């Protein structure tokens, strides 16, 4: 049983897997990767459209949280990956890097070493993209990326949506990650030959043969232990009980934007008054731990269509047939990502960059007796969210008990700027749906529906029906200012021997999904650590 390591990485998610692989590539480093959840061997993890079952509250591969949306607007469930691979083992497999302007903005905010010129080499080094190499796209890396396959069921509807978006002002592009002025196209996906490509599969598994890398799952890290102001070890709990593991060099927390600040607070790094009230000894008074919470607020619009929908493929005998197709040949609709098309749109032509992301799925769902259920009639979903929210939420622990759930406030759309963008997004989606290219296929808008027309009605509907995009970030903000939680080398301020590397350190959300940026962040910090040594 291991009791010491040079580097202890807490959390085998998107960033943690990359860190473990990169740090262990140096034979002089002894690396321990600790994951709270189970191994990633379940059939549903490999099968892309298994995501619906994986993300259901109660699944052993996820964390589930109760979240206050904002004020009196009710609560919702957030789920995050809790398995080897973290959220990359349970997510929608959407490969979205964000735009160069996102990372240059981070650099402007004081995150030296995180501008686009710094980050693009990490994306390129990770990628093995089927579209081939360009100055800003990589091939030969460990992470295999494909685009949604053409010549499949629903092609007619996909093409009609792309043409309609072009008529509305958003052009067709081959690679949406390489179009800083926006565009719509077939989804880039972390899927290869019909199977999910998680951070565990791409980065961690090839490194497991190394004798200097140890991975343990089903093990909770309860607290970080300190020798004065130096992080010296972790207290862990597994089936055999509670024990201590010492770190000779560093502890790197990569547990995600909820668990990472939670662990810091439980360990004495956080708002001093909160910690003292809960009976936790203060190691470092850091009021910003758990603050600056940012999340994309997602809304679905739903349309009834004449044909092209895959609703019928995911129910009854067709579902059984498609699962069989997947098992035998890794083909068919069970190999699709969470959506078939992705678009970055400007809801106002004068904007300097796209302000909203949309995703198009060849399905439609509604609430039934057992929760979300596929509609029986053919349907199309066009969902989206404002990409650069200004509204800030927060989270904090409510007990010194590591098993107690934290308090989380999303605080969606509390800023007028976010409200205005949300309304423009819905109107832009409707603009796409009303174009001539879709006229022959469209029957009617099901949600929000014809009764929702004014700005106030659209906003009220958005607040009522919208929800998490599973992109929570910002709760251990990185920066060069003294108030930031970590510095640009991801080192926790006020202590030594401790870093945080995951979406919690992002000062602002990137444009789009967070899995690819989290992996690139892991590689960026791993290179920083190796350079330091």
Automatic annotation (TrEMBL):
Full protein name: GMC family oxidoreductase N-terminal domain-containing protein
Cofactor(s) listed: FAD
Flavoprotein listed as a keyword: yes
Highest taxon in the source lineage: Bacteria
Keywords: FAD, Flavoprotein
InterPro entries per UniProt: FAD/NAD-bd_sf (IPR036188), GMC_OxRdtase (IPR012132), GMC_OxRdtase_N (IPR000172), GMC_OxRtase_C (IPR007867)
Family (UniProt): Belongs to the GMC oxidoreductase family.
Domain Glucose-methanol-choline oxidoreductase N-terminal as annotated: residue spans: 81-104, 256-270
Organism: Sphingomonas immobilis
Classification via PROSITE patterns: GMC_OXRED_1, GMC_OXRED_2
Record carries keyword Magnesium: no
